Amino acid sequence: RFNLSNTSFAPDVYTAYNSTFTTGRHYVNFVARDVGGNIQTGYANFYFDIIPPNETQLVQPANGKYVKNATFKWVDLNDPSVRGYIFELSTAQNFTTLISLEMFEPGIDEYDLPLNKIDENIVYHWRISAYDEGNNVNYSEIWNFTYDVSLPKDPVFLYPITDMFVDSDIVDVLGMAEMG
How many beta carbons lie within 10 A of that of residue 74, not counting itself? Predict the structure, then answer.
């Protein structure tokens, strides 16, 4: 609460008043009185917040994995001060170039990226940031994945070969497959 009753302000001059605020909504009521006793009031409210939301936890795609789809999942913070989430996707780990930048409302914890935005066999980095009423931002960890829908080449069986007679109840099967 402010008490400016003993403070004099010069006419037509804006005066700054400094105070320490706690996180939350604050209400200020101003009363101006001139030398003739006339009164004018003013009212304002503002939200003060310098504490960022908690870090958002990433779920999918798992860090360092090859994936066949581009569904991203994270844990919703269920924090009433969170105003939204920002999804970032980049080929650069420092996010200097963005492939995708999307904003989501609280309660949203999944995003299906259109596959025409990414190419095969490229390492992509992604993160989610939560922001609150004070526009404080907290970034998640950075995870990466590689998009891969190529089918492997047909496997080649080396042993046993087709129509081979095997006289044991334990058989070692040997084969190889080459990635396409």
Answer: 22
